[in-house]
């Protein structure tokens, strides 16, 4: 099995800080009152947005389309940029320093595709469904909860994308 881009770079750099771009997407249901969210294989609690890290040579828009297909079997296209978030940590769950630059997109099903095509990969994504946004669903990490709140307030009120910074293990 071929290693992904991050595994290949980590093999060269070790635990030193690196910047990784990621892309995630919001797919609304037909009534625009629920978002497709996934139960992730790497977290026991809460939901996450379909998405993941970019591969070398891939645009953020291509990555979110690829990730939706891999994780949910859904064919989507990008509608608009929702926002950009930066999260810095001195030690991620693998023990590495990392900054994740995450770009969120609203997506829609491509013509001819159907939500009935939804099939999870059973690895990264254990389950996926359209989850009502009221009350707010529990997200798998605080940053995802902050992002969901921005999507539901700022993006629903404006076409302007937002920017968010967060840091864990802040240095004094």
TrEMBL record:
<dbReference type="InterPro" id="IPR015797">
    <property type="entry name" value="NUDIX_hydrolase-like_dom_sf"/>
</dbReference>
<dbReference type="InterPro" id="IPR020084">
    <property type="entry name" value="NUDIX_hydrolase_CS"/>
</dbReference>
<comment type="similarity">
    <text>Belongs to the Nudix hydrolase family.</text>
</comment>
<feature type="domain" description="Nudix hydrolase">
    <location>
        <begin position="18"/>
        <end position="153"/>
    </location>
</feature>
<dbReference type="Pfam" id="PF00293">
    <property type="entry name" value="NUDIX"/>
</dbReference>
<protein>
    <submittedName>
        <fullName>NUDIX domain-containing protein</fullName>
    </submittedName>
</protein>
<keyword id="KW-0378">Hydrolase</keyword>
<dbReference type="InterPro" id="IPR000086">
    <property type="entry name" value="NUDIX_hydrolase_dom"/>
</dbReference>
<dbReference type="InterPro" id="IPR020476">
    <property type="entry name" value="Nudix_hydrolase"/>
</dbReference>
